[in-house]
Write a structure and sequence with these properties.
Length: 483
């Protein structure tokens, strides 16, 4: 079965929401009843981190009367910042059982034992009723039809059934119910192999895939059924139900993602200039940004230069302005409580610069810093007033957008101090001031960002870069200046 993007919701624990992408030509197969019947089954997979099984994933496609239901359930036991959390995410999409196989309804639920989110959608004459229930806050809206069908959900498996050759490529629709958008799923045949499984010769396809900013390898049998896959440090393996459910808690992913540095560089917030040498695998995850320049050396090493001296002026495009003022499930900026909090934060500020300064200061004091490994949402955060860097970034983005200032979340690394001599995963924001992207960090109360922040960029690419860099990075200090 095709829906194997098992980590996309979970990455919100460590990363940031994705961004919308441009539309393009999609492959949508013509389905026959026999095609659907051949795909009606339940599959189980174990989820592994460094060969330790930390969760399971199950998919199911069934006929129910005149409809076809495509569903999954994902469960993972994660440790981050020393905190344990069991995350369960499920989704069920109901389609017409006959052409054109339109999407009729859907339900998605996230629960980590503390924070719960439920989204329900149902087709109506004028689009879809879209209901969100988060932290006791219920919100209903009407969404336009995204033209997503069962044929789209089965596109990759049907493409594999057509016996594509090595290097053949296809683009299909990936439906994000939570953000109500269509992403592009790109797949390319890397290899066609055979293997003996239980004494039976099995032909399978290895695909290189890219979706929602993440790249990963997947393996499919000749009928398009997903067998196994790798994304960053995680692996999915097909197993029996009993095997798949035999799980234990992961290693601490925050510790796993730390990047050591060869010598101390002083207090984080006082660093004004920093030049680091990055060698080995994973050094291609850094890119130029508002306070950062990267240089590829002849020997393959990379220099990462951080601070005002190395800043690049990054102009916001018209599309970026639109996207980063938009209301989404993660940013419900028309919600009465979000609007009220934004007005309180902004106060008497008039200019965008003043609004941002007020919001950063407000969020810095509103949230009580607390390490956690939970899935954040703005409603729960407003009520509980505590969380880690991703919570500060989430609230800052919400309040800035509600105040009319384009804002997005950024993934990167932050110097953790001389006692540790390492950088750890961190989240902050970029806002548009005078048409230029400017970084701010409410968790540290900074509107003039220090050089202890190393950015992977904003949007989907940064999330993918962070995951691919886990456990692979270390730095050598070339130059360091502090105030």
């Amino acid at each position: 079965m095709k829906r194997i993007f098992w980590l996309a919701p979970v990455l919100a624990v460590f990363l940031i929401p994705g961004s919308r992408i441009d539309a393009q030509e999609f492959f949508t197969p013509t389905l026959k009843a026999a095609d659907i019947d051949a795909s009606l089954q339940t599959d189980w997979y174990g989820t592994y981190l460094n060969n330790k099984k930390i969760g399971y994933f199950t998919t199911n496609r069934t006929r129910t009367g005149e409809t076809v239901v495509d569903s999954y359930l994902m469960s993972m036991k994660l440790v981050s910042f020393g905190k344990k959390v069991e995350i369960k995410i499920s989704q069920a999409l109901t389609f017409e059982g006959k052409a054109p196989y339109r999407l009729l309804s859907g339900v998605m639920e996230e629960n980590d034992g503390q924070v719960a989110l439920k989204i329900s959608v149902k087709r109506q004459d004028n689009g879809f009723d879209y209901d969100v229930d988060a932290a006791g806050q219920k919100q209903t809206s009407v969404k336009a039809d995204l033209n997503y069908s069962l044929a789209d959900a089965m596109a990759v498996e049907m493409w594999v059934r057509s016996t594509p050759k090595i290097d053949a490529q296809v683009a299909s629709k990936d439906f994000d119910l939570k953000e109500w958008k269509i992403d592009t799923d790109k797949s390319k045949v890397k290899a066609v192999k055979t293997s003996l499984v239980g004494g039976v010769e099995v032909k399978y396809y290895e695909l290189d895939n890219e979706v929602r900013g993440a790249t990963f390898l997947s393996r499919h049998d000749a009928l398009g059924n997903f067998l196994s896959g790798n994304i960053a440090i995680f692996e999915l393996r097909k197993e029996t139900e009993e095997q798949a459910k035999n799980t234990e808690f992961s290693q601490d992913i925050f510790v796993l993602g730390m990047a050591k540095v060869d010598r101390p560089i002083g207090s984080t917030t006082k660093i004004t200039e920093l030049v680091l040498n990055v060698s080995g695998k994973g050094n291609n995850v850094f890119e130029n940004g508002p306070r950062q320049t990267t240089v590829l050396e002849k020997d393959g090493d990379r220099l990462v230069k951080v601070g005002k001296k190395f800043a690049n002026e990054v102009k916001a495009t018209a599309k970026e302005l639109e996207d980063n003022l938009a209301e989404t499930t993660a940013y419900p900026i028309s919600n009465a409580k979000v609007q009220a909090l934004a007005k309180e934060a902004v106060g008497d500020a008039k200019s965008p610069e003043e609004k941002v300064r007020h919001i950063v200061r407000f969020v810095h004091h509103y949230i009580k810093g607390e390490m956690n490994a939970n899935l954040p949402n703005i409603h729960d955060l407003i009520a509980k007033k505590k969380g880690d860097c991703k919570c500060y970034a989430l609230m800052t983005a919400n309040l800035c957008r509600a105040a009319g200032v384009p804002a997005r979340e950024v993934t990167g690394l932050l110097y953790m101090g001389d006692d540790v001599k390492a950088f750890g995963g961190h989240a902050w924001n970029e806002v548009v001031l005078g048409g230029i992207w400017v970084p701010v960090d409410a968790s540290l109360g900074e509107t003039d960002l220090d050089a202890g922040h190393i950015s992977f960029g904003a949007g989907d690419r940064s999330a993918n870069s962070y995951m691919n860099a886990l456990g692979k990075l270390s730095f050598k200090v070339v130059e360091s200046r502090s105030k």
